[in-house]
Amino acid sequence: MKKLSDRAMLFLILALQLIAVIIYPPSFFQANPQAAILPPSLTLLFVIALVLLNTGALDLMAGRSFLVFIQGINIIMRLMMLFPHLKTNGQWDFVLLIIALVAMGLSWFTIVQIEQLPLSVLRFKRVEE
Fold first, then answer.
1. Which of 112, 111, 121, 23 lies closest to 69, judged by CA?
2. Domain residues of the chain, as ranges?
3. pLDDT tens digits for range 95-127
4. Residue 86 in contact with residue 31, Cβ under 8 Å?
5. Quick one: angle between helices 60-85 and 6-22, nearest 10?
């Protein structure tokens, strides 16, 4: 089995981070329209982190910390929303439970993986030394 290059691993991790932030069951937003602000706001923070990281406004360590922070916030917000909304009208919402667990697992996985990548990989364009 071929090992992914650092570059391919970076893009895979970034894609998984985005998926972890935006995945919610549609029924969740119908019952809680105020929660619809979470995916766009976390996605915006994610895009801001990538832009600042790749324009040089953030150094590599701060950029990695910003990406990890976004995923940590995602995990905390999902935990805060999971238990109050797990049972509605006497019925267990297994779709919400499964999606929340998958999203938290993806966030945790991306945090671990991004911490293991070399800092130099976090920029999209290669810097000639």
1. 111
2. 6-24+38-115
3. 989 999 999 999 999 999 999 988 888 887 765
4. no
5. 30
